[in-house]
Specification:
Helix content: 40-55%
Radius of gyration: 13 Å
Strand order of the largest sheet: 2-1-3-4-5
Oligomer: single chain
Largest sheet: 5 strands, parallel
Number of strands: 5
Strand content: 15-25%
């Protein structure tokens, strides 16, 4: 399984990469800090999961959600938020994201979700 982490926080990128690198079913981990970088990674690789920061600049989160849903290029999208802003939550839901987690309070859920996605792909 190949995973793309898209986040503006270097600390979150590092923490997620460390966590994912310990998982046996995650083969490749790619990192991006912008919408443009994420799109290129998704074009170049067969991505299974995108871990997406809800706070990308210049509406990058919503633009990436649009791109991913239009292309159908990933199996699952997990949005990581710092707060549950009702407007942002509704907007993400409108693009049928698979999961929305608080990036600080619900971090522990990510590995279980990725394991269940991997099991479905096998």
């Amino acid at each position: 399984m190949q995973v793309v982490i898209v986040d503006t926080s270097v600390q979150i990128l590092q923490r997620l990469e460390e966590m994912l690198s310990e998982m046996k079913n995650v083969r490749n981990i790619y990192k991006a800090v912008t919408y443009e970088e994420a799109v290129e990674l998704c074009k170049e690789n067969k991505i299974s999961v995108v871990l997406l920061d809800s706070g990308l600049r210049d509406n990058g989160t919503i633009n990436l959600l649009k791109y991913l849903k239009e292309t159908g290029s990933v199996a699952a999208i997990i949005v990581l938020s710092t707060c549950y802003d009702d407007f942002k939550l509704r907007e993400c839901i409108s693009y049928n994201v698979d999961f929305i987690f608080d990036k600080y309070q619900e971090f522990y859920k990510i590995t279980g979700i990725i394991n269940s996605i991997a099991a479905k792909q096998e």
